[in-house]
Amino acid sequence: MSSDSVSNLMKGHMESLAAEGKRADGRSINEFRNVSIETGMINTAEGSALVHLGKTKILCGIKLLIGTPYGDSPGSGTMTTTAELAPLADQSFDPGPPREQSIELARVVDRGIRESRMIDFDALCIEHGEKVWMVFIDLYILDNNGNLFDCCTLAAAAALANAKIPNVQHGVADEDVDLPVTCWPISCTFGKLGDKVILDPTSDEESVMSARFTVAHDENGNLRAAQKGMNGAFTDAEVREAVKTARKSDNVLREALKGI
Amino acid sequence: MAGQTDMELIKDGIRLDGRKPDELREVKITAGVLDNADGSCYLEWGNNKVYAGVFGPMECHPRHKQKADRAIVQARYTMAPFSVNDRKRPGLDRRSSEISYIASQAFEKVVMVEEFPKASIRVDMQVVEAHAGTRCAAITAASVALADAGIPMRDMIPACASGKVNDIVVLDLNKEEDNYGQADLPLAIIPSTGEVVLLQLDGHLSPEQFEEAMDLATSGCMDLYKIMRDALDKSYGGKK
């Protein structure tokens, strides 16, 4: 349940656990849940991945279409990211047009990938100023048990790694080639629970935590994107510490990504 | 349904994908695949892939849609942008809205809505890969998800299409047959009573061919019904 129904009793329980460095599901405060990645299950997509992070389950599909480049970058491909909070994933997700929550989610994932230049956009140019590949990253949240940010970033990275440029179908070249991927941005999301900062919050933890902080690194340990969310606050020291923790803790996700 | 094609879709009684005219594509159903939803189902039908999830009965929003004497079923059918070859724009379009609406009404016939005045039962059908016949796949999956949620129902509703290609009535159209065939007749029935709860038709059928298509779609529904029951049996059957 990620609704407001988690009682104050639960809040007190989780905060006192966190104060002792413990979690309701037995993890330590800087530990990710089990992660698994499958790829290539959607035949109509150019790339796809299904990622489980604990009980959170996200499907990402990549589509590549030919379009015209933006005027200010005539030699570069383009990229669009959407996140659909499918109503079947959570009772609190309403059907209807995207809300701020899903727009924020898609934009944070988008920044992590775009600003790290994970995709070599220049290699997506077919005809300078005329024709480029447009990459569409569509994320489908199927089961929400918290930390959609990290699960989405991971699903997008895995699906991009799985993607082929459909040259043959569009008559661009004689064979389909891998989408040019240059680096691996991975995000780590923290929640503030009482006075403690925890990694990879579940939806129960999200419903009682006061603030959220997401930071994405590339594989060289450089920061690529960050976002602070919710109406609580972190201290300056907490933010700095979280960034350091993220560099160590994201290894488990990197290993899962290498395994695909 | 262009119907104006010389394309040979069936030859010596065998279709492009190797099936006989009265043969279903392979259907695989798994109940209870999602953690948050009260009931859920994942269904593969040929290359079609669909998730269905159910929440409820719960308070009906928006309030003005409440019925004083019964629950309403709010079904929603959507296709993922990457489910088709040309990317589909996200969100509800007119086709999805129509399918959602007729599916809601079909489910209201079998769900015991009179047990839950003013409530809503939310049924969400997400197509993640589409190769013709997704509305039938979605309704079939949603029926299993409703049962998985333990919502009182008179019966489940399997849905299956029949159609016509090269003047031959066939069961369960594939993508090519849907695009270049002559008729498409999706049907959903209540197996225990034989009542029809959803029927659409587009294309061109003679009265005799219509009779034949109804028979074929009905028998397809009955075959599906068995697969649906087996899926639930696998999840809830207990020791054998």
Explain what this protein looks like in three dimensions:
- The complex is a heterodimer of chains A (260) and B (240).
- By secondary structure, chain A is an alpha+beta fold.
- Chain A has helices spanning 8-19, 100-115, 148-162, 203-208, 236-249, 251-258, and strands at residues 35-39, 47-53, 56-67, 78-85, 125-127, 131-143, 164-165, 177-178, 186-193, 196-199, 211-217, 223-229.
- The longest helix of chain A is centred in the middle third of the chain and has 16 residues, at 100-115.
- The mean pLDDT of chain A is 92.
- Chain B has 240 residues and is α+β, with helices and mostly antiparallel strands.
- Helices cover 28% and strands 30% of the residues of chain B.
- Chain B is built from four helices and twelve strands; from the N terminus they run ββββββαβαββαβββα.
- In chain B, strand 3 (27-31) and strand 4 (39-45) form a beta hairpin.
- Classes of the chains: A alpha+beta (260), B alpha+beta (240).
- At the A-B interface, strand 3 and strand 6 of A face strand 5, strand 6 and strand 7 of B.
Write the layout of secondary structure elements.
The complex is a heterodimer of chains A (260) and B (240).
Chain A: H1 8-19, E1 35-39, E2 47-53, E3 56-67, E4 78-85, H2 100-115, E5 125-127, E6 131-143, H3 148-162, E7 164-165, E8 177-178, E9 186-193, E10 196-199, H4 203-208, E11 211-217, E12 223-229, H5 236-249, H6 251-258
Parallel strand pairs in A: 4-6
Antiparallel strand pairs in A: 1-2, 2-3, 3-6, 5-6, 7-8, 9-10, 9-11, 11-12
Chain B: E1 10-11, E2 14-15, E3 27-31, E4 39-45, E5 48-59, E6 72-79, H1 94-110, E7 119-129, H2 134-148, E8 159-165, E9 168-171, H3 175-180, E10 183-190, E11 195-199, E12 202-203, H4 207-236
Parallel strand pairs in B: 6-7
Antiparallel strand pairs in B: 1-2, 3-4, 4-5, 5-7, 8-9, 8-10, 10-11, 10-12
Helix pairs in contact in B: 2-4
